[in-house]
Specification:
This protein is mainly beta and 126 residues long. The chain has a single domain (26-120), classed as Immunoglobulin-like (Sandwich), CATH 2.60.40. It has 1 helix and 9 strands; from the N terminus they run αβββββββββ.
Length: 126
């Protein structure tokens, strides 16, 4: 099918956004292409509701600064040369009315993270 679709050129697609009724806490999956100490990519899951995640940052304890992750595509955010140690993560969210940072009170990503693991946070977006 791919060859037939490519032959058509640009195809316009219509879509509509719907809010998700998934309950529970925000979850992060360490993307399979992540390489410990060199490259960290996370997939944000279980977002639910109508809240958008606009930005993701990790806290670097050594410099006491938040480092912005790049939105690679969709719900995947990445960072080259991630800080070492346990990582706290915060999310810039928008519900259409308000833009705010949301974060956990504890470290979210363990120091010895591995590609493929899924981490449940204590953050709920509604």
């Amino acid at each position: 099918m791919a060859k037939q679709l490519f032959a058509k050129g640009v195809v316009e697609i219509e879509y509509s956004r719907v809010s998700c009724k998934i309950g529970g806490n925000l979850m992060l999956k360490i993307n399979k292409y992540s390489k410990y100490r060199h490259y960290l990519a996370i997939v944000v899951m279980n977002q639910g509701g109508v809240t958008d995640i606009l930005d993701v940052e990790v806290y670097e304890e050594e410099t006491k600064q938040w480092l912005s992750m790049r939105r690679a595509y969709g719900a995947v955010f990445d960072l080259t040369s991630p800080p070492s140690g346990d990582l706290n993560v915060r999310f810039l969210t928008s519900d259409g009315n308000e833009i705010k940072w949301v974060q956990s009170n504890k470290a979210v990503i363990p120091a010895e993270w591995k590609a493929g693991i899924t981490i449940e946070t204590d953050i709920q977006l509604s």
